[in-house]
TrEMBL record:
InterPro entries for this protein: 6-hairpin_glycosidase_sf, Beta-AFase-like, Beta-AFase-like_GH127_C, Beta-AFase-like_GH127_cat, Beta-AFase-like_GH127_middle
Pfam family name, one: Glyco_hydro127C
Domain Non-reducing end beta-L-arabinofuranosidase-like GH127 C-terminal, residue spans: 528-639
Organism classification: Bacteria, Bacillati, Bacillota, Clostridia, Lachnospirales
Gene Ontology terms, MF aspect: hydrolase activity
Domain Non-reducing end beta-L-arabinofuranosidase-like GH127 middle: 433-514
SUPFAM superfamilies, sorted: Six-hairpin glycosidases
Name of the molecule in the record: Glycoside hydrolase family 127 protein
Length: 642
């Protein structure tokens, strides 16, 4: 048995830091995204995705509108609804979701096929363009949504719809004669099939997921064969001169050692590989996952947990290529990284994976949504000069302000489902061992071997670096594995008022509990200067600020314009202070110098005149909160003169 997450319905989160984000899901984000998907948000990009289903269901008339994967916005929204209903019952929301599900059921073809783009726009092209068509990707998100909704409500209608679709996929694809010997252009169906297997026990779904992973990149590339067909029409013009690395189909998955191509595709595939390594006891898949994870986190990941540095094709590039001002770091990619890391932590019982999960969740994922829940970043750069974010330039993908919606809106509902399911990251359990992963206040009923036990975690983290864990009396001794984060100093554990000895293994401090206990954990995690590997050319001669899991940034609001003219003094103390802007947040002040521009001859672009530097104090805020006070410059990596 391997560790697994706690069912969401057994977790009640009430946390100083996270509740303001999580409460937005049910109170703001889900209603707002419902309006967006129904094109009711003024001045927002059109979605039409609900209308597409109504048209396919013959509840309305019209034509398909949107991207080939437009259905997935509805799927991820329903998944967020399912997660939310698991923890907060809402009769009106459930009825609304049930109506959407009935429309989806009516839109389903007789044989089980479900995809409004191909049903309405190109019915003759089913399964003929796996590279670009996103049919299997869309199916996977539908499967995930149906499982979440079933778990959250106990209702099987949506599950039955997607099982019919999954059965069709199993009948259509495979190694047998007469079946399509292909695999998805955008990985996701593998995760969906595995989740269907988990709730139904149907081995066929697990075997289908395994087929898609096992056959990928083997022999002649399937996508290149598709594109070589006479009369092939590209859905996406940028796919001409297609490089199989883009879809991780350049090699069999077990032979891949570097994270290549589209970052979201990559980490979704790695999630499925980790799941299959677990369920199929496949050591070769496990080893491949370890190599790919190591390549990402040691050579291709931003300090914020962002991945996929290229604004062209949303992809990984090469080791240490981590530019700040025009990087991509799609929100969905960091969500996928967190999901991959959670699986690896559960498989290995190694807390270093959760260090990365925490980094991604606290920084890039949170940065993707405004504090009011009504606008979003798709791209998450580490340096922004708004005036330079010009259309048809190298920075055209960088938005200096969060957007109300996107024509391709995969990130907003993905962030919604992530916040709604945050509880899955807090604990994992294995027989009679409880792993404490994230420090988030909650009351939870923990299902241990042969009993359920009540646990309460109380904390003001990350403002304060301590927490209290109250564990009810167990029927038999249990192990508690307390994560020791990579930024922790002077780690201390008290049990019932007395300092407790512990053994650290793979980043967890293990203690034994055999009675009702109050565990107090404390550590130091002061604000620190962080340096990048010198091979990261964009950050040589620069430093960043980090306190606990939070990365900090400078904003024009606090520090004036032309942030690139600022230098920090790393020999001076970093001042920590409670934020006047956000409850439960610490802001930082540091000493530095500013290149003085007033004396510069404005008629000259270049000069032999050396600019003057003047002393200044710089104020830094957590990166995820940038751009919540208006448009302005932002900077994570700062120049240093010492």
């Amino acid at each position: 048995m391997q560790p697994k997450s706690i069912p969401l319905e057994q977790i009640n989160i009430q946390d100083l830091f996270w509740s303001k984000h999580i409460d937005l899901v049910k109170n703001v984000i889900i209603p707002y995204q419902w309006e967006a998907m129904n094109d009711l948000i003024e001045d927002a990009e059109s979605s039409h995705c609900i209308e597409n289903f109504k048209i396919a269901a013959k509840e309305a008339e019209g034509a398909f509108y949107g991207a080939v994967f437009q259905d997935t916005d509805v799927a991820k929204w329903l998944e967020a609804v399912g997660f939310s209903l698991a923890t907060h019952k809402d009769e009106a929301l459930e009825k609304m979701a049930d109506r959407v599900i009935e429309t989806i059921g009516k839109a389903q073809c007789e044989d089980g096929y479900l995809n409004t783009y191909f049903t309405l726009k190109a019915p003759e092209d089913r399964w003929t363009d796996l590279c670009e068509g996103h049919e299997l990707y869309t199916a996977g998100h539908m499967m995930e949504a149906a499982v979440a909704y079933y778990k959250g409500t106990g209702k099987k209608r949506f599950l039955e719809i997607v099982m019919k679709f999954a059965d069709l996929i199993c009948e259509t694809f495979g190694s047998e004669a007469g079946k399509i010997h292909g695999y998805p252009g955008h990985q996701e169906v593998e995760i969906g099939l595995i989740k269907l297997y988990e709730v139904t026990g149907n081995q066929r779904y697990l075997e289908m997921a395994k087929y898609f992973i096992d056959t990928r990149g083997v022999g002649e590339n399937y996508f290149l064969k598709e594109m070589a067909r006479p009369g092939y029409q590209y859905i996406f013009p940028e796919f001409k001169d297609y490089d199989p690395r883009y879809s991780q189909s350049h090699l069999p998955v077990r032979e891949q050692e570097t994270a290549e191509g589209h970052a979201v595709r990559a980490v979704y595939m790695y999630c499925a590989m980790a799941d299959l390594a677990k369920y199929c006891k496949d050591e070769s898949l496990y080893k491949a996952c370890m190599k790919l994870w190591d390549n990402i986190v040691t050579k291709r990941m931003y300090i914020t947990g962002g991945i996929g540095s290229s604004g062209i094709l949303e992809r990984f590039t090469t080791d240490y290529d981590l530019p700040n001002e025009y990087n991509y770091s799609e929100s969905c990619a960091s969500i996928g990284l967190a999901l991959f890391g959670l699986r690896m932590a559960q498989m290995t019982k190694d807390a270093t994976f959760i260090d990365v999960v925490e980094r991604a969740l606290y920084n890039t994922v949170l940065a993707g949504i405004a504090l009011d829940g009504k606008s979003f970043f798709y791209v998450n750069p580490l340096e922004v000069w708004p005036e330079a974010c010009i259309h048809r330039t190298s920075k055209e993908h960088v938005k200096p302000i969060r957007q109300k919606w996107f024509g391709v809106a995969c990130c907003p509902p993905n962030i919604a489902r992530t916040l709604a399911s945050l509880g899955q990251y807090i604990y994992t359990v294995e027989e009679r061992t409880l792993f404490v992963q994230l420090f988030i206040s909650n009351d939870t009923c923990i299902p241990l071997e042969n009993e359920n036990i009540q646990v309460q975690l109380t904390t003001c983290f990350p403002q304060n670096n301590s927490y209290t864990l109250h564990i009810a009396k167990p029927n038999a001794p249990i192990k508690v594995a307390l994560r020791v984060p990579d930024y922790a100093e002077t780690y201390k554990v008290m049990v019932n008022g007395e300092e407790a000895p512990y053994a650290v293994e793979k980043g967890y401090a293990y203690i034994l509990i055999d009675a009702e206990s109050e565990i107090n954990v404390s550590f130091l995690a002061p604000a620190r200067w962080i340096y990048a590997n010198p091979s990261v050319r964009a950050d040589v001669g620069k430093v960043a600020l980090q306190r606990g899991p939070l990365v900090y940034c400078l904003e024009e609001k606090d520090n004036g314009d032309n942030l690139s003219s600022l230098y920090v003094d790393t020999t001076k103390a970093i001042e920590e202070m409670p934020s006047a802007n956000w409850k439960g947040i610490v802001e930082l002040k540091v000493s530095g110098k500013r290149v003085e521009t007033e004396s510069w001859d404005k008629a000259k672009l270049y000069s032999t005149h050396k600019p003057k530097m003047v002393d200044t104090t710089l104020q830094a805020i957590p990166y995820p909160y940038w751009n919540n006070r208006g448009v302005g410059e932002m900077l994570v990596w700062m120049k240093t003169f010492n």
